[in-house]
Specification:
By secondary structure, the protein is α+β, with helices and mostly antiparallel strands. The chain has 2 domains: about 130 residues, Impact, N-terminal domain (Ribosomal Protein S5, domain 2, 2-Layer Sandwich); about 60 residues, Alpha-Beta Plaits, CATH 3.30.70.60. The chain contains 5 helices and 11 strands. The strands form 3 sheets. It has a 5-stranded antiparallel sheet, with helices on both faces.
């Protein structure tokens, strides 16, 4: 994996897999927090009141160190792990897949379930465009209003993202600086007098 970029999906996708009457609907979503995952799951449960299982796997964070695999009542290891396995096989992060199962009356057994959850997830991931995003280091900038143009020029030049902005007497911006261009961008910002830069811890 490139140390300056990470892979994720650009937008959500849905795929369907059927086996012996059971229907598996796989939903893939780009996510950046566990809270976002919880909201999506709650929404899907409202949308599918008759479904029997909502099996979930997600991986979040640039290091991919926040993750979960839930079987949601299916036999242990038959749903969440196969879903997470598909996410990991494509080296994705900031992604969640939920597979909604409608039971068709025939038990599939553990191998059948593993295959169904794995296949449904693989289909959903094929439909979701994978993108490379720069790994960003977060900083807070504090500066006087009259420096706005100079600051914004550097932000544009180095493809920094602006996450939050607050302005009263002073302007406060929370930005993400691409890791690949961190040193150059910090040098530019330090050339501007009276611009205070603070690293935001992860």
């Amino acid at each position: 994996m490139d140390s300056h970029f990470y892979s994720t999906i650009e937008k959500s996708a849905i795929a369907e897999f059927k086996d012996r009457g059971s229907k598996f609907l796989a939903y893939s979503y780009p996510v950046e927090s566990v809270d976002a995952c919880k909201k999506i799951i709650a929404g899907l449960k409202k949308e599918h009141p008759k479904a029997v299982h909502f099996c979930v796997a997600y991986r979040i964070g640039i290091e991919g160190n926040i993750f979960r695999a839930s079987d949601d009542g299916e036999p242990a290891g038959s749903a969440g792990r196969p879903i997470l396995g598909q996410i990991d096989s494509k080296e994705l992060t900031n992604i969640m897949v939920v597979v909604v199962r409608y039971f068709g009356g025939t038990l599939l057994g553990v191998p059948g379930l593993i295959n169904a959850y794995k296949t449904a997830t693989a289909l959903a991931l094929q439909l979701a465009p994978i993108v490379q995003k720069p790994i960003e280091i977060k900083y807070e900038l504090d500066f006087d209003y009259h420096q706005m143009n100079e600051v914004m020029m550097i932000i544009k030049q180095y493809n920094c993202s602006v996450e939050e902005q607050a302005a009263q007497l002073f302007v406060q911006l929370k930005i993400g600086i691409p890791k690949a261009r961190l040193e150059e961008a910090l040098n530019k910002f330090s050339d501007l007098r009276e611009v205070k830069l603070t690293l935001i811890p992860n």
